[in-house]
Design brief:
The complex is a heterodimer of chains A (312) and B (423).
Chain A lengths: L11 H19 L3 E4 L4 H14 L8 E5 L5 H14 L3 E5 H7 L15 H12 L3 E3 L16 E4 L27 E4 L7 H11 L10 E8 L2 E4 L2 E2 L5 E2 L9 E6 L12 E2 L5 H10 L4 H5 L9 H7 L4
Parallel strand pairs in A: 1-2, 1-4, 2-3, 4-6
Antiparallel strand pairs in A: 5-6, 7-8, 7-11, 9-10, 11-12
Helix pairs in contact in A: 1-2, 2-6, 6-7
Chain B lengths: L10 E7 L6 H11 L5 H13 L15 H6 L6 E6 L4 E6 L7 H8 L4 E7 L6 H12 L4 E7 L8 H18 L4 E5 L23 H7 L12 E8 L14 E5 L5 E2 L3 E5 L3 E10 L2 E3 L1 E2 L4 E6 L10 E4 L5 E12 L10 E6 L2 E14 L6 E2 L9 E14 L6 H4 E6 L4 E8 L1
Parallel strand pairs in B: 1-3, 1-4, 4-5, 5-6
Antiparallel strand pairs in B: 2-3, 7-8, 7-15, 8-14, 9-13, 10-11, 10-15, 11-12, 11-14, 16-20, 16-22, 17-18, 17-21, 18-19, 18-20, 21-22
The chains are: A alpha/beta (312), B alpha+beta (423).
């Protein structure tokens, strides 16, 4: 008998990483002016490691950009700036508050979550810099409207996602062609799950903002959800003030996802290192967004709606 | 690596074909549920929906229910991707709708799969769509087929029914040229033979569905393949402060097939110049060898002008440069193919303008007959000949999916309008 070939099979993390590197390089090879969205959250931290593996010893062929709602956790904003500086890559920050000043974002009331308004600021930034592609860290397992998202997702001039009019995507042949004004959103970690992200963070020993780990903070229990209160903003001002009659308690919590303060809630946890978080993720009974995203619960199709309006 | 991780058998991509009537969504829901992928809040959400729709029990098929538009129409119209893991292996399910008008979706879902599960309703046996799904799966080169005979609970778990369907299928498999096919009796509704064996199919002594998935070989593991490395991007960090990088010239890409070691003799296409591999890197760090599907950077001993769209191969395994290709094509656009038009073909990282030279025949996906055709409409599958403006470095699709596949782009609107497999 002739000897069977024994090709080394990549581990699942190596395979996912290789796929993500390939996707980033396709964006760099096909698009003339891409940008990588970096929020300081865990998924985009993985994306930066992937970009290093894809392009070092060269510089990244795209700048980093964060759409800041002005309601982000101090720890995450500080981490964002530190990480970009360590990598020596250019970081662009565009702020929802500037869009509010321009009058392009109008809040229904002062306390309305600014999360969905990021779409407006993002589209303004795309126009300002002439970006033809945005690389984002969205994953298909996050939410059911994302399960059918392409890896290269086409958006029209208004940033709209039309789920019925997406390009067929076969093999690993990606079509990032667009006309001026149109835009491609590329998602290199589409095929990763929350577990894969944590395992990758563990394997690559990636540093994270401290609020991903168990810490004690003042919270109230509002409609069954743990809501952080009296959260200091970057300028020191406190946000998420408790409502009258709410009892503030100190709880040991960590964040599973990090975003706008008004719509991300922590979970009770004593996991204070990555290994414990991997174990906790393996045994949790609640989905990532179910536990922690107050904005996805409004209606069954709310993510789909936001995406149609230009959200990531 | 953490202590709780035992063995990593990599990743398997598979496809489920069938319609809602065959219990496809229930099967996927069951796999996700029994591998504990479904978390409590998702389950309570679908329980609520089941109740709202007046259903008696929790409908696991709702787990795979997609977009608002689809929910309104009560059908699936697009490929969805689902994930689960057994701790030893990660799985990506491509969930494709089964209707005839969705041939293009099935082809899309099949393009990345290494195994296809063909669902048959035990009460109905082999249908036209069974033949269609099997043919498409084999056409798109899925090496492993698993015929799952579902709804065994509705035929009293009868071994006779199972054996009859199996015999019928083997007959058509021969005609379709399908070599590797396995069979399993199931009840997705009750969870028999999915992850757990259940008590009702004791006459079946084969492996469960999950056991079959666990042992199915991964992509690129069964044959020796020729090394193929389409260049995606060239890294030349000359402006760096580091003088060592002055002459750095890294060719970046993903190994489509085969493997490469430092010191190997390689040829760069299309210029045909040869050199040896000076280094292989990931992120600027040296590794001794690159294997299939790995994304790496290759440095050559000699300075060879190379850019995106070129291909690095081993000098002993140079593929042919072709300016005319015969291929099986699936047309995917609502606008029929226009024979007078020029299209763009994207093959690996290389583009070429292309014109249709001939339609040899169209395949009727229901009767599997070859019929003459003058034009191609959406969901048509046909054997065609293209003339190319630029040469492509191609292998037959059956030898190498990565260098045998291409997509067709309409340059007027940039849409992907077709997919092709080189014969």
């Amino acid at each position: 008998m002739t000897q069977r070939p024994t090709p080394s099979t990549l581990s699942h993390l190596d395979w996912l990483e290789a796929e993500a590197i390939h996707i980033m390089r396709e964006v760099a090879g096909q698009c003339s002016n891409p940008v990588l969205l970096f929020s300081g959250g865990k998924d985009s931290i993985c994306m930066l490691r992937i970009a290093e593996k894809a392009f070092r010893p060269g510089k990244f062929p795209f700048p980093l950009m964060h759409i800041d709602t002005g309601h982000n956790y101090q720890e995450v904003v500080a981490f964002r700036d530190k990480r970009a500086a360590e990598l020596g890559e250019r970081l662009i920050v565009r702020s929802v508050e500037d869009s509010m000043k321009r009058g392009t974002v109008v809040l229904k009331h002062e306390g309305e979550s600014r999360n969905k308004h990021q779409s407006v600021t993002l589209l303004e930034a795309i126009e300002e810099f002439g970006f033809d592609a945005c690389i984002g860290g969205a994953r298909r397992d996050e939410e059911k409207a994302r399960a059918k998202e392409r890896i290269f997702s086409f958006r029209d001039e208004f940033g709209q996602w039309d789920p019925k009019n997406q390009r067929p995507e076969l093999w690993s042949l990606y079509n990032a062609r667009s006309h001026k004004g149109e835009n491609i959103r590329a998602f290199p970690i589409s095929n990763w799950t929350e577990m894969d992200v944590w395992q990758y963070i563990e394997r690559e020993k990636l540093e994270l903002p401290s609020i991903y780990f168990a810490h004690t903070r003042p919270v109230v229990i509002r409609q069954g959800a743990i809501v952080p209160v009296n959260v200091p903003l970057v300028n020191g001002e406190l946000t998420n003030l408790p409502k009258a009659g709410e009892e503030i308690i100190d709880k040991l919590v960590r964040f599973r996802t990090v975003g706008d303060i008004s719509c991300t809630a922590p979970v009770e946890s004593d996991a204070d290192n990555v290994e414990k978080i991997v174990l906790e993720t393996a045994t949790t009974t609640i989905t990532e967004r179910g536990a922690t995203r107050l904005d996805d619960q409004t209606s069954e199709a709310s993510m789909e709606q936001r995406k149609k309006e230009g959200y990531f | 690596m953490s202590a709780h991780q035992v063995e990593d058998r990599g990743l398997l991509r598979f496809l489920t074909c069938g319609s809602v009537d065959d219990g496809k969504s229930t099967l996927i829901g069951r796999l996700l549920f029994d591998t504990k992928t479904i978390l409590a809040d998702t389950l309570s959400a679908i329980a609520k929906t089941s109740e709202k729709r007046g259903l008696g029990a929790v409908d696991l098929s709702l787990l795979t229910d997609g977009l608002q538009a689809e929910r309104e129409q009560g059908i699936t119209i697009d490929v969805a991707y689902r994930y689960f893991s057994t701790g030893t292996r990660k799985y990506i399910i491509a969930d494709a709708p089964g209707h005839e008008q969705y041939t293009r979706n099935m082809v899309t879902a099949a393009s990345t799969a290494n195994l296809a599960i063909i669902l048959i309703d035990a009460r109905k046996g082999i249908l036209t769509q069974t033949r269609r799904h099997s043919k498409l799966a084999s056409l798109v080169g899925i090496p492993h087929l698993l015929v799952a005979i579902n709804k065994m609970d509705l035929v009293d778990y009868s071994q006779e029914v199972y054996e009859k369907i199996k015999a019928d299928y083997l007959e058509i498999a021969g005609k379709l040229g399908i070599e590797d096919v396995r069979f399993i009796p199931l009840s997705a509704l009750n969870g028999d033979m999915i992850v757990d064996r259940g008590d009702s199919l004791n006459w079946y002594d084969g492996p469960t569905l999950l056991e079959i998935l666990e042992e199915t070989p991964g992509a690129h593991t069964e044959h020796t393949e020729k090394f193929r490395f389409p260049v995606q991007y060239v890294c030349r960090p000359q402006d760096s402060a580091n003088p060592e990088l002055h002459d750095y010239r890294g060719f970046m890409g993903r190994v489509e097939a085969g493997s490469l070691k430092v010191g190997d003799a390689v040829t760069v296409l299309p210029n045909g110049l040869s050199s040896t591999v000076k280094a292989i890197q990931i992120g600027g760090v040296d590794i001794p060898e690159a294997v299939t599907e790995q994304s790496v950077t290759i440095l050559l001993a000699d300075e060879i002008d190379t850019s995106r769209g070129d291909m690095i191969v081993k000098s002993s395994e140079v593929p042919a440069a072709v300016k005319q290709i015969e291929a099986t094509v699936c047309w995917m656009s609502e606008t029929p193919m226009d024979r007078a038009r020029t299209y763009l073909i994207r093959h690996t990282t290389r583009d070429s303008k292309a014109k249709l030279a001939a339609i040899d025949h169209r395949l009727d996906v229901n009767t599997l007959e070859k019929v003459p055709a003058e034009k191609l409409a959406m969901n048509d599958i046909a054997q065609v000949t293209f003339k190319l403006a630029q040469p492509l470095f191609a292998d037959p699709y059956t030898e190498n999916r990565g260098t045998g596949a291409f997509i067709i782009i309409d340059e007027s609107n940039n849409n992907t309008v077709g997919a092709g497999m080189i014969l």
